[in-house]
Amino acid sequence: MTVEPIATDEIKSVYTYLASLDWEEPWLFYLIGFHLFVGLVAFFTRRIAIVQATIFCALLLTVYQAEDINAYCAQNHKLFTAHQYFDSHGLFISIVMSMPFLGIAASIVANWFYVSTQLMRDLRVQKDRVRERQTSKKDQ
Q1: CA neighbours within 13 Å on the CB side: how many for 3?
Q2: Contact assessment for residue 83 and residue 23, using Cβ atoms and an 8 Å cutoff
Q3: Cα–chain-centroid distance for residue 35?
Q4: Per-residue model confidence as pLDDT tens digits over 82-139
Q5: pTM, full prediction
Q6: Which of 12, 83, 110, 140 is deepest in the core (most CB within 10 A)?
Q7: 3-class DSSP state for residue 76?
Q8: What are phi and psi of 89, to 5 degrees?
Q9: Surface-to-core class of residue 101, CB atoms within 10 Å of its CB (0-12 exposed, 13-18 middle, 19+ buried)
């Protein structure tokens, strides 16, 4: 299947852009698989703070380096793909690599908020128990 490159002025939506890509290329399957793997690791380690922090920092560092990754891939695209996806604006790498990573990072932050809320609730319950014990000792 030959896919003609799409000009940036022809892009009307993210869906239009994604539909123009050749989704039969193996490396795209590997990239999607990697996103799923990282997402699953983030999900299953949601109670292990150090692993979550490491994944979070690695994801944000990768997104931060996306411009350099895009430049490298633009120069060496013939090694792993038949098409030149890596434009100077970084649209492809932003949509296909950075957005899923930012989504996973956002889910990690949401989990941190949830865990923090649970810890604050538990702390409040413990304080109430201590206060009840102190009050009952004074009454005796």
Answers
A1: 17
A2: no
A3: 8
A4: 888 898 888 999 999 999 999 999 999 999 999 999 999 999 999 999 999 998 888 7
A5: 0.83
A6: 83
A7: coil
A8: -85, -15
A9: buried
DSSP output for 17-57: HHHTS-TT-HHHHHHHHHHHHHHHHHHHTTT-HHHHHHHHH
**Farthest CA pair distance, the chain:** 86
Task: Characterize 42-78 residue by residue with b for buried, 16 or more Cβ atoms within 10 angstroms of its Cβ, and e for exposed.
Answer: beebbeeeeebeebbeebeeebeeeeebbeebbeeee
Determine the pLDDT at residue 7.
Answer: 62
Query: What are 137's two structure tokens?
Result: 């000792």
Number of H helices, E strands in the chain: 6, 0
Residue whose tokens read 């970084």: 90
Query: Which of 130, 27, 36 lies closest to 85, judged by CA?
Result: 27
